[in-house]
Amino acid sequence: MRVDRFKTHYKTFLTMKFFFNLSMLNRRPTGVGIYSNKLKQELSKKLSPNFIFLYIKDVRLLSLYRIFWNIFILPLKVGKNTVYSFSSHGSPFIANQVITIHDLICLNFPKQHRFQYYYFRFILPSIIRSSKKIVVISEFTKSEVLKFYKVEENKIKVVYNGANILQYSPDSKTEQEFDNLTNKKPYFITVGASYEHKNIFNLLSAIKKFNNLNFSFIIIGKANKYGLQLRDYAKKNHMPNVIFLDYVSDQLLSKLYKEALCNIYISRYEGFGFPPLEAASLGTVSLVSNIPVMREVFSNSMIYVDPLSVDDICEKLQMISKCKFNLGLYKNQYPTLITKYSWNHAAEEIISIVNT
């Protein structure tokens, strides 16, 4: 039944003029950027010459320019045609649009993203009202949208992200980088540690309590205000086994995931969560928060921890470091998990939604 519905929408899709708003895509994609890039690649396989991808130039004050461009310039470019936005950016002056809301982190952590907080608080409600549909990436995000905004439930459609599948092809440069970084010691890895909701201070507190210099902790995240605070904390507390990295290449990231004892992802809040799927694609288990969205997305395929309990985090680190868990119980679920979250399926769902 779903296949027939897709074929019907697909035939319509081939003949219409359609715009894709890729204003969130940048040269170093993370989160929404990865979503935009992966979904664009899959949609490109299914589209006729009538589709148009819209980008914005990289300028100073990009966040402010992006909002201006979406609200005032985007309507002039698309006219009365349909536009699908890969993010929550759109315009109250476009009726035939579909937007995507990934999470409402800025409303739950307003001090973390003050500029985004004002956007989500005062501008997004009018864009939601003018949109014909709203795509969300999890049932949890749907519940958050219903909690914070006045919107009809049937206007919201859940389309899960695909898995960001990483592969590692050995090369001498990456191998040398890896050896220099890890010094052949077993290590844990944490990816995306750039903001308060990622809960890295609790992780550092647990590492301090863990107090085992035989294991390293590689933490990848921007050296922004929060990132510098983390680095300062580790330095002041004499934690030489904590290694901070900024942006790394996909090749090195894949190698780090592949060889890690465990990927740590103990956020206090997420809309979906790419890193555990990235780790799973390379056969590495993850320690994740026992928050609702993690249970929804990953079911029983991950090790869960209370993100607010330093003691529980420390206990889980000890358990994993001593291999006191059944790794096969988790790894055997990963092929099914990766298949479940397919960009091809996500693209088909988007095509169906915009043609409804």
Automatic annotation (TrEMBL):
Q: What keyword terms does UniProt attach to this protein?
A: Transferase
Against Pfam families, the record matches this protein to:
Glyco_transf_4 (PF13439), Glycos_transf_1 (PF00534)
Question: Signal sequence: where?
Answer: none
Q: Which residues form the Glycosyl transferase family domain?
A: 174-323
Gene3D superfamilies membership: Glycogen Phosphorylase B
Q: Which GO terms describe its molecular function?
A: glycosyltransferase activity
Q: Where is the Glycosyltransferase subfamily 4-like N-terminal domain?
A: 97-164
SUPFAM superfamilies, sorted: UDP-Glycosyltransferase/glycogen phosphorylase
Q: Which PANTHER family match?
A: GLYCOSYLTRANSFERASE WBBK-RELATED
* Protein name listed in UniProt: Glycosyltransferase involved in cell wall bisynthesis
